[in-house]
Each structure stands twice: as structure tokens, then as C-alpha cells.
């Protein structure tokens, strides 16, 4: 076989010498042991929790080592591309404070650009042409039907499926047969001519999983598709080398492809990057664990957290809790320290599936929101409401001074202990709705109608907005005593049979009448914020 002639026929014309790419993309000037990491999503329009999981790990490892994190878009598959997907990726990761140094839509140093793989087609073809000249790649003219039949035969024979060995029809095809197929205009792909043997195994050190034993690759994988665009396997090897990536962290589903990628680095003459395959995100389904599913689990999509109104900091804290086993203890000890100060280590990443628990995230979210100031909470709620809230909720921000009073009360700011009632922006705005619109009754009264009316009538008879909290409560206790309830809790506990209930039961009736809820922050303060006119109107409405 005249490999030079074949290479020229398949990829005619002059391509830059490979040495020029080494000069165009020089080694990075970084401190010793600095890591260069990347996030390389496909523009499919779906960015998920796994992307964020990997992005946080990559960002922490790169920046703690004095290195770089960049964003590359792997758009070699046009069929999967969705308009606006790249912008959605950038916006989502920016929302969760993933700080890229450079890359697609990021700016920064463009030495290693372009950041879109389809814009780097000439580079890939130059390397493919070199492989063809060296006899390490060849054209394959198999049709989809032939490949499907081949797979059926392998399955029937209980053999490994794929294009390899005796099944690699065009691997050692005579030169005349290859030229005849080209003369006939048959479409083709270009495959790697693998030199591996699946019977041989070797040990590879994974930065997360430790030493893993894998088989050598013997698959003649496609490296250049019929449209002249490379496959992911080939493009990522070329790009990771030329962009000077030192560490690739990716999902464990790629572990099966590792032998292919290592062989590609070797045949191209590149130094291999380090690889770390992180665990999958799992959830409990009944008594068993399973991977989070795009079809079954809305919480897999990052858009879910924005639409529900989770604070990005809370989500990031939870992700770090899953990523490093000692993060939670550190954050509890140093809650006010920037997350960047946590000594993130790849060696602390879980080797097996990380269990994603929405209840745990909600607990973390309550804690993190309780640490915000009223002004910070207002800004967070406002941003969410503008994007996802109802017109009524957007109206809550017309009087921000009033809203600050509401948030100060509902968050327990200034009290002995912060309240942890808020989980998300969506839930928080629903929770404080009674301060704005009518207080629709959400919780049922636990007393009969006659008692309820007696409480409401008695309260209105003596209510004054000018009363301070102490006077206000003394009137509530007097009212309780007048209708057969214990004015003091100790009296009620000492002899429950002697009373209809306690003063707390009377206060609950008032609370539901004013707010629609049985549990709220301090009722006197709520009435003070609402004002006398609105308070009276609500009690009268409840009485009616």
C-alpha cells in the first residue's frame, strides 16, 4: 500500500506541518504542579447536575494549584446541536459561580483558541493525514446496514461487538480495492488502525479511583467522519494536547473508553494527561440506588434549581459536600470563610456513587439562606421574581422598605436565633404572600365556629395598634380567660380538664384569621407591619 498516495487522495492539498501546531500552542507558562483543567460540554441544550459536579471539581483543582480552567465546546455532532445551547451553558455555570479563565464566550487569553471543535477542523485533518501516511489509519466504506449485520453476528456468536480484528473488513484491504471504492464515489470514514490486543491487560492510575486494570484497545474506532469532522475520541485527544490540559476529570461512564484514548495519545506522540473518573450521582429509589435520570428526575437539570429558586451558593455548598468527604465538617467549623479557602483535594473525591439527597440540599439551603442579611435576601428574591415570579410577586418589591421589615421578621434578624423557614426563593415568596395580598386561609381552625367568633369579636373589641407587645399579649390572655381558656400555660398544663384550651389556642385563631397560617413568626409584629386597617379588615373577613 502506498500510504502517501492514499493520504493525498483522501485529504488532498497542503496541511500545516505538525510542528507548527506545537509552536502555535506552546506549553503554558504556569507554576510547577499547576493543573490545567477543562469543561467540555456538547451544545445539546441540556446542562445537568453532573456538569456542575465536574465543573466545581475542575475549578477548585485548577485554581488551588495556580493553574487554569477553560471552557471548550465539543460540537462535532451537528445533529445534537441546539441553538442557544452554548449561551445557556455559560449562563448556567456563571450563575453557580464557576470561574473560567478562558474559553468559549468567556474571553481571557485566546492563545489556545478557537474553543469550538468545528472551527479546528483543519488541525484534526492534519493529524489524520499524518496517521494515514504512517499506515496507522485507513478508509472504511462499510454501510450502516453492513455494520448492523456485523453487530448482529457478533451478538449471536456471543462475541465482543465492534469493528476489530477479523471483523475489520477494510483494515487490510488491497490497494486496488480501496482505489476502486474511491473511484466509485463510495462514502467512507477514516478509522484508527489499532495495534492493541484485548487479551492483554494493564494497570492505569486513575486520579480518583486509584489503580484500575483495563484491557488494551483493539477497536479500529472512527476518527474522522464522512463529513470530514472528527469524532469525540480523536478531537479531544488533539485538543487536550494542544490546549495543554494536564488533568481530565470526567464521569465514570468514560472509563470504558479509556483504552481508546490512551492509544490515541500514544499513536499521536502526545504526552498523556492525567485522568480522574468521578463517581455517578445516585438517588434512592425505594430500597435501591440508581443513577439520576434525565427522564425520571427533574432535579438532574440545572434549570430546575434556578426555576425553583435555590440559592446558587447553597447548591454549591451541597455539591462540595458530595465532592470532598471532609468539606461538610470544614464548612460547619468555618461558615463565614470563602469556599475558595477549603483545601479541596482530588484524593478526597468519592470512588463510588455519591448519593444525591434533595432533603439534604433543602436543609443546607435553609441554613445558608438564614445567614443572609435582609438586604441580601431581598436582592436574591427580586432577581428570582423578575425571571420566574408571578406579576403579583413582582409587585412585592414596589415598597422595598416594607419588604425589608417583612424579611427581618421572617428571618428572625435581631432575635436570639435566626429562623430557618426559607428553602428557596419560590417557597419564600409564597410563604410571605400574606403580607401583601389577601390572607387566603391555608390552615384549618382547631376550634368550633362559636369559639372562633368569640375570639375574633373579643379581640376586635379591645385591639389597638398603639399597644406594645406586652399590653397586646395581656389583652389576649384576658380574652382567653373570659371564654374558658387558660391565660397561663402553667395553669393549663397543671389541669387540662379545667379549660377549653390554652392562650396559645386563642392566639392560633387570631394567627389564622390574620395570615391564613397556624405557624408564623411573632403575631404582634406581623400586625404592626400590616397596620391596623389591614389587620382589622382581615379579622372581620374571617369573622364573616
Structural commentary:
With 544 residues, the chain is mainly alpha-helical. The protein folds into four domains: 3-15 and 121-278, HUPs (Rossmann fold, 3-Layer(aba) Sandwich); 289-369, Glutamyl-trna Synthetase, Domain 2 (Glutamyl-tRNA Synthetase, domain 2), CATH 1.10.1160; 372-435, no CATH class; 449-543, Arc Repressor Mutant, subunit A, CATH 1.10.10.350. It has helices spanning 3-10, 18-24, 49-64, 85-95, 121-133, 144-156, 175-183, 232-242, 258-268, 302-308, 312-323, 327-333, 358-370, 374-388, 391-395, 400-410, 425-431, 449-462, 469-482, 489-494, 503-515, 523-530, 532-543, and strands at 36-39, 68-71, 102-103, 137-140, 189-192, 201-206, 210-215, 222-224, 247-251, 274-278, 281-285, 288-291, 354-355. The model has no long low-confidence stretch (mean pLDDT 95).
* Shape by Cα distribution: elongated
- CATH homologous superfamily (4th level) name of the largest domain: HUPs
Tell me about the biggest sheet? 3 strands, parallel
Q: Given the structure, what is the number of helices?
A: 23
Radius of gyration: 33 Å
Helix-strand makeup class: mainly alpha
- Largest sheet strand order: 1-2-3
CATH architecture of the largest domain: 3-Layer(aba) Sandwich
* Fraction in beta strands: 5-15%
Distance between the termini: 97 Å
CATH top level class name of the largest domain: Alpha Beta
Average pLDDT metric: 95
Query: CATH topology of the largest domain, what is it called?
Result: Rossmann fold
